[in-house]
Design a protein that fits this description.
There is one protein chain. The chain is α+β, with helices and mostly antiparallel strands. The chain folds into 4 domains: 91 residues, DNA polymerase, domain 1; 53 residues, 5' to 3' exonuclease, C-terminal subdomain (DNA polymerase, domain 1), CATH 1.10.150.20; 109 residues, Beta Polymerase, domain 2, CATH 3.30.460.10; 59 residues, Beta Polymerase, domain 3. It has 16 helices and 9 strands. The strands form 3 sheets. The chain has a 5-stranded mixed β-sheet, with helices on both faces. The protein binds a DNA duplex through helix 7 and strand 5. It is an enzyme of class 2 (transferase). GO terms for molecular function: class I DNA-(apurinic or apyrimidinic site) endonuclease activity; DNA binding; DNA-directed DNA polymerase activity; metal ion binding.
DNA sequence: ATGTGAG
DNA sequence: ACTCACATA
């Protein structure tokens, strides 16, 4: 996924959430005021889960997380259909510059701020000052246009078959799964999130060196065959970079994670998403007396202390343990 | 060590 | 929310 955010659209206070989210982003990215940012976020979350339409600031004030200031904004929005503060933000060039610069992967609010302070206010201008950037940011800038393009499903299928072919030749026992929206059956995706494991790599057998080389070797193999073209970062468990199918195709964001065998299915579940589905799944786990994270499903005792991870041999196992009706990846919206 | 950023 | 990788100090 790119750096754009999506928002839900089915709740009765959607329009309030929309402008409050925009104010939150503004406080995070431009003023760098983390407290105001959190305040807006809290207000959005309470409004988003409020079942009925709010019809006045006073009514909103009764909700936890909404005080005088936000209540006034809701009144203004109700009466005039807009917000003066937001109008001002929209016409502010510093804000526009920061929003533009943070679209480059590797550039967050802090870096964008310092660039704007030095007078660099656009992608075009930034291209003349690559000396101010890290490797990650340079690669992000070089492929700026490509990285914002969606990836059609059939292109990921082709990339998947190249990865499978190359890595199975290396070691036939490697298990490879592309997760994210691709696994959920979407027609297009923002990036390619690949999970890899191997039966004799488990979390109790800590072959740090073996593990370290394993991911490096995988990346090297994919570079040799011409698929992987850029590295943003490469550690012992996570590669972030880019790949390109051939000259006719854009450069695509590719992540590869190396996962211990015993954690593979929790990871697949987690990285398949969606985010909303994950939240749903976790709260259900808690209700059933489990704690679920990207590594393991563990029973939580009466003391509140999580026990030993439950043995998992498939994604279905996870659903079964917490009697949650199994949902196919395509149904996890 | 700490801060930044990605996901 | 939490973890990983990186850059800088």
């Amino acid at each position: 996924m790119g750096k754009r955010k999506a928002s839900d659209d089915t709740n009765p206070n959607h329009d309030f959430c929309e402008f409050l989210s925009e104010l939150a982003e503004y406080e995070k990215n431009v003023t760098r005021d983390i407290h105001r940012y959190s305040a807006y976020r809290k207000a959005v979350s309470v409004l988003a889960s409020h079942p009925t339409r709010i019809t006045s600031g006073d009514e909103a004030r009764k909700l936890k997380g909404i005080g005088e200031k936000i209540a006034k904004k809701i009144d203004e929005f109700l009466q005039t259909g807009k917000l003066r503060k937001l109008e001002a933000i929209h016409s502010d060039s510093t804000n526009a510059a920061i929003n533009e610069l943070t679209r480059v992967t590797g550039i967050g609010p802090a870096k964008a701020h310092s660039l704007v302070k030095e007078g660099i206010t656009s992608i075009e201008e930034l291209r003349k000052h690559t000396d101010k950037l890290t490797h990650h940011q340079i690669v992000g800038l070089r492929h700026f246009e490509d990285f914002e393009k969606k990836i059609p499903r059939q292109e990921i299928e082709q990339i998947e078959s190249v990865i499978n072919k190359e890595l199975k030749a290396m070691d036939h026992d490697l298990k490879i799964t592309i997760c994210g929206s691709y696994r959920r059956g979407k027609a297009e995706s923002g990036d390619i999130d690949t999970l890899i494991t191997h039966p004799n790599f488990t979390s109790d057998k800590v072959d740090k060196k073996h593990k370290n080389n394993m991911l490096k070797n995988i990346v090297t193999a994919l570079e040799k065959c011409g698929l992987v073209t850029e590295t943003l970062s490469l550690g012992e468990s996570k590669f972030m970079g880019a790949c390109k199918l051939d000259l006719e195709h854009p450069t695509r964001r590719l992540d590869i994670r190396l996962i211990p065998y015993d954690q593979y299915y929790c990871c697949i579940l987690y990285f398949t998403g969606s985010d909303m589905f994950n939240k749903e799944m976790r709260t259900h786990a808690l209700e059933k007396g489990f704690t679920l994270n990207e590594y393991a499903l563990r029973p939580v005792g009466v003391t509140g202390v999580p026990g030993e991870p439950v043995e998992i041999h498939s994604e279905e196992d996870i659903f079964d343990y917490m009697d949650f009706p199994y949902k196919k990846p395509e149904e996890r919206g």
